[in-house]
């Protein structure tokens, strides 16, 4: 082999063949490598500080997943949070700030499932977190809620109403503190601003209803959903405001600082200057200071925007915006637009929308009454809105509901119809009563001639409803009585008020009335009587219906007995009030029924509790005459132990004051208590037995409760200790 050939073999060129792999180069770098997992047992252990849920995730892990881009991860994180917090409630207090901020942040999430899970978690948290705990973080919650309500996405706006429902139910006071922003959000949900051409020079923005075809529900249904929440929000504002008036009878509720403290007075100690009565400290009322000077409070530093609807300026501004929108909603849903032939017949959804419109106006009217310049506010409301209200609201009054039954199943058709009929009667009546409330509040005695047309319509509706009101509930009766009272104040002559009182008395005479309804009727009649009694003798005109009602109260008390002690207490209070005013009809009826009320066996006196017994004993002082039969009943009541010894002593003292031995300097009523009957009462009570019982005891021999000693021929009647102590206390008084 030559040298040249050997050189060629060293540098021989490799020929590549088709289908064969390319051989590796001798200087190629090997890039393959092997890995092994490193396991640290400490990482697999559960965290000993933070509890975990079933997926081994603690609170920090779940909160960190709330920032994940995937909607599924965030949804699972919300579900895991609810599971974890339900198992370990103490975690809420430790991580309250983080939980609230993360949950509120997903109010505006794009995914509907995430928003739904956030609402459910918020509802769960509301039942676990108190208002004072969430108060520092509530501005953040309110900001996210406002962002959701004003969001461009329709789904987020719809879910924001669900969040609002949860917060209104759990934290109404905290939510109403931010009323200015939220009320504007409510307006923007159903309307949009438009710069009117006529008002361009004034630079005022007008609002008009908006229509969004992209929503899943109709425009009318969407407005109904928004107005329903607005009504709940205004209800919370009214409840949170001071000096709120009750609907209907409009009686001011006792506030927390006006608790009446009863005080026991001993007239003997008071006459000897040993007991001093402080009327102001125990009266429970605060004096009115007629001064324009006021100390500066923290609320005076706030501007009108922070005061919310408590400012008259803000309230007027909101009324000017919302009332035209509400009237537009009413016009769209009014029966004249839907079916002119039907007149005042309404469909169910239409009626609900109209009811919300009137309820919101009614709540705004209640807020206007809480300001100092009430008369100016009422005059302003009348000047701006009475014409529109008469034209639109009273046009088809009274309204009734059109019964439309959907025949889904033949078997349930009849039952559905019955259910609908009962609920419909409630709905349209509430609608009419709310409208009456609004309209009557705009009328006054000075405008009676101008408003006589629509006032007569309301008066006729109220009278007819009361006369046929056997199936009314307490809420409806309360509204009816409120409108009735207002009508009686507007027109105070007997010709106008007597038919209204007669209609209420017709309802009062109905049997099987609910207890709240009976209570409302009693309060109404009592208030009417007190108002009538305050008039001077020159202009007083006694109502025959009212006198008939008063005369029937003692008989009702005797028949009621122990069946309803609370109602008996109300009757006793009214009877006591009228008897102290020397009402002739009531005193005559009380005299005729006294034997049944003070019967020692089955009378009202011995059946009722101690406090009611005390009031009944006080009524003895007002009885025109105390015959021997009544004194016998009272003596038996003292002896039998059915009332306390202190109350028996009070009764004996009252009878002594009615007798001729009380030492009155003025002339006592003649023949009120006969002296012989009075002494007979004292001795019968002192002995402890009536004449018949003594006769029967003398004929008993050999009985175990009759004892005779060898030292004395007197037979002793053995008594237990309680009976002996009771009789001993009564004996000392006598």
TrEMBL record:
Q: What is this protein called?
A: Testis-expressed sequence 10 protein
Q: Which species is this UniProt entry from?
A: Acanthisitta chloris
Major subcellular location class: nucleus
Q: Quick one: a GO cellular component term? A: nucleolus
Question: Is the keyword Nucleus assigned to this protein?
Answer: yes
Give the family from UniProt: Belongs to the IPI1/TEX10 family.
**A Pfam family reported for this protein in Swiss-Prot or TrEMBL:** TPR_TEX10
Q: Where is the Pre-rRNA-processing protein Ipi1 N-terminal domain?
A: 132-234
**Listed PANTHER family:** REGULATOR OF MICROTUBULE DYNAMICS PROTEIN, TESTIS-EXPRESSED PROTEIN 10
Q: Does the keyword Iron-sulfur apply?
A: no
Q: Where in the cell is it found?
A: Nucleus, Nucleolus; Nucleus, Nucleoplasm
The segment(s) forming the TEX10-like TPR repeats domain are 545-734
């Amino acid at each position: 082999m030559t040298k040249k050939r050997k050189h060629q073999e060293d540098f021989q060129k490799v020929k590549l063949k088709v289908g064969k792999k390319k051989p590796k180069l001798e200087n190629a770098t090997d890039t393959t490598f092997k890995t092994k997992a490193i396991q640290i047992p400490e990482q697999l252990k559960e965290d000993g500080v933070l509890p975990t849920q079933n997926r081994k995730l603690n609170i920090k892990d779940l909160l960190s997943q709330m920032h994940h881009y995937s909607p599924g991860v965030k949804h699972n994180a919300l579900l895991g949070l609810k599971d974890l917090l339900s198992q370990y409630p103490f975690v809420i207090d430790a991580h309250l700030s983080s939980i609230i901020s993360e949950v509120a942040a997903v109010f505006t999430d794009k995914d509907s499932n995430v928003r739904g899970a956030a609402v459910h978690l918020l509802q769960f948290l509301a039942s676990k977190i108190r208002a004072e705990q969430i108060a520092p973080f509530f501005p953040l919650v309110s900001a996210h809620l406002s962002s959701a309500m004003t969001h461009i996405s329709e789904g987020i706006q719809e879910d924001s109403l669900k969040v609002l429902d949860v917060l209104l139910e759990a934290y109404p006071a905290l939510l109403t503190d931010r009323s200015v922003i939220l009320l504007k959000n409510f307006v923007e949900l159903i309307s949009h601003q438009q710069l009117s051409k006529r008002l361009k020079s004034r630079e005022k923005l007008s609002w008009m209803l908006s229509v969004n075809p992209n929503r899943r529900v109709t425009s009318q249904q969407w407005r109904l959903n928004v107005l329903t929440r607005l009504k709940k929000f205004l209800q919370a504002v009214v409840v949170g405001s001071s000096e709120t008036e009750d609907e209907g009878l409009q009686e001011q509720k006792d506030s927390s600082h006006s608790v009446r403290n009863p005080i026991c007075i001993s007239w003997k100690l008071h006459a000897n200057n040993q007991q001093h009565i402080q009327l102001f400290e125990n009266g429970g009322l605060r004096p009115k200071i007629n001064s324009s000077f006021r100390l500066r409070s923290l609320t005076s530093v706030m501007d009108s925007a922070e005061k919310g609807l408590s400012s008259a300026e803000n309230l007027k501004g909101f009324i000017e915006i919302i009332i035209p929108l509400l009237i537009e909603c009413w016009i769209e849903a009014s029966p004249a637009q839907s079916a002119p032939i039907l007149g005042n017949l309404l469909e169910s959804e239409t009626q609900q929308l109209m009811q919300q419109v009137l309820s919101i106006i009614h709540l705004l009217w209640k807020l206007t009454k809480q300001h100092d310049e009430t008369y100016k506010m009422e005059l302003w409301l009348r000047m701006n809105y009475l014409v529109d209200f008469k034209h639109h609201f009273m046009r088809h009054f009274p309204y009734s509901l059109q019964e439309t039954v959907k025949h889904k199943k033949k078997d349930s058709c009849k039952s559905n119809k019955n259910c609908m009929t009962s609920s419909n009667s409630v709905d349209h009546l509430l609608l009419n009563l709310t409208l009456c409330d609004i309209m009557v509040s705009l009328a006054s005695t000075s405008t009676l001639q101008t408003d006589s047309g629509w006032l007569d319509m309301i008066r006729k509706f109220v009278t007819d409803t009361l006369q046929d009101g056997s199936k009314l509930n307490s809420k409806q009766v309360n509204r009816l009585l409120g409108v009735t009272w207002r009508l009686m104040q507007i027109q105070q002559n007997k010709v106008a008020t007597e038919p209204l009182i007669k209609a209420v008395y017709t309802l009062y005479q109905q049997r099987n009335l609910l207890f709240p309804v009976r209570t409302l009727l009693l309060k109404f009649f009592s208030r009417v009587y007190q108002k009538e009694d305050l008039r001077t003798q020159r202009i007083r005109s006694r109502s025959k219906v009212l006198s008939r009602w008063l005369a029937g109260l003692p008989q009702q008390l005797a028949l009621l007995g122990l069946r309803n002690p609370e109602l008996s207490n109300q009757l006793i209070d009214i009877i006591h009030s009228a008897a102290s005013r020397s009402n002739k009809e009531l005193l005559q009826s009380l005299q005729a029924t006294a034997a049944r009320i003070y019967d020692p066996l089955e009378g009202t006196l011995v059946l009722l509790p101690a406090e009611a017994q005390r009031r009944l004993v006080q009524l003895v002082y007002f009885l025109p005459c105390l015959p021997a039969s009544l004194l016998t009943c009272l003596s038996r009541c003292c002896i039998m132990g059915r009332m306390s010894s202190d109350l028996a002593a009070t009764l004996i003292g009252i009878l002594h004051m009615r007798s001729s031995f009380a030492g009155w300097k003025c002339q006592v009523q003649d023949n009120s208590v006969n002296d012989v009957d009075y002494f007979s009462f004292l001795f019968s009570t002192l002995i402890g037995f009536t004449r018949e019982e003594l006769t029967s005891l003398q004929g008993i021999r050999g009985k175990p409760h009759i004892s005779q000693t060898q030292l004395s021929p007197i037979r002793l009647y053995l008594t237990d200790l309680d009976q002996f102590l009771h009789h001993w206390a009564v004996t000392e008084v006598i």
